[in-house]
Amino acid sequence: MVRGPRFARWILTMTTNQNSGGGTAQARTAILLIDDDIELCELMQRFFTRRGMDLELVHDGRRGLARALGGGHDLLLLDVMMPGLDGFELLRQLLERQAIRRMEGGTLSDQQVEEMGLALMKLEAKIKELVEQFGLKPEDLNLALGPLGNLLE
C-alpha cells in the first residue's frame, strides 16, 4: 500500500470533497483495497466509510486481480508484499492486459503505441529500483509481457 505525503494529501482532498455538503448529490468514491493484512483492512474500512466512501476489501492477489479487472472502482489501493500474487505482479498484469486489449482493438494511434513503449520502459526502470529497495534479485521480477516479450530483457 502506498503511504506518504502524496497519499496523505489525496486522502485529505478526498475526505474534504466527500464531506462538503454542497447541496448537489455526489457519486460516492469506490475504492478497491487489496491487502492480506485483515486488521489493517478493517481499520481502512472504518476510515473510508466514515468519510462517505465505499471500500471493497479483497485479501489475496488473485481474487484482487479478478475484481480489479471487473472494474467499477475509482481507486485501487494495493499492498505490494502479499503471498502468492504480490502487488507488483498484480499491477503488471493489470497494465499488460489493458495495453494488449487496446493494441489488439486498434484503438491506439502510432503515437500512443510509442508512448506506451516509453511507459513500459519507465516501468522497467522503476521495477529495477524496487528490486534494489526490497533486496530482490532481478530474475525474481523478470515478468513475461505476452507478445511484448519479457520485462527485464
Description:
The chain has helices at residues 5-19, 38-50, 61-70, 87-104, 110-133; strands at residues 30-34, 54-58, 75-78. By secondary structure, it is mainly alpha-helical. The two termini are 27 Å apart.
List the helices and strands and how they pair.
Layout: H1 5-19, E1 30-34, H2 38-50, E2 54-58, H3 61-70, E3 75-78, H4 87-104, H5 110-133
Parallel strand pairs: 1-2, 1-3
Give the amount of beta strand, in percent.
Answer: 5-15%
What is the arithmetic mean of pLDDT? 77
Output the helix-strand order.
HEHEHEHH
Q: How many strands?
A: 3
Low-confidence stretches: 1-5, 7-12, 14-24
Put the structure in a nutshell:
With 153 residues, this protein is mainly α. The chain is 52% helix and 9% strand.
Structure keywords:
single chain; about 150 residues; mainly alpha; three-stranded parallel β-sheet; about 10% strand; globular
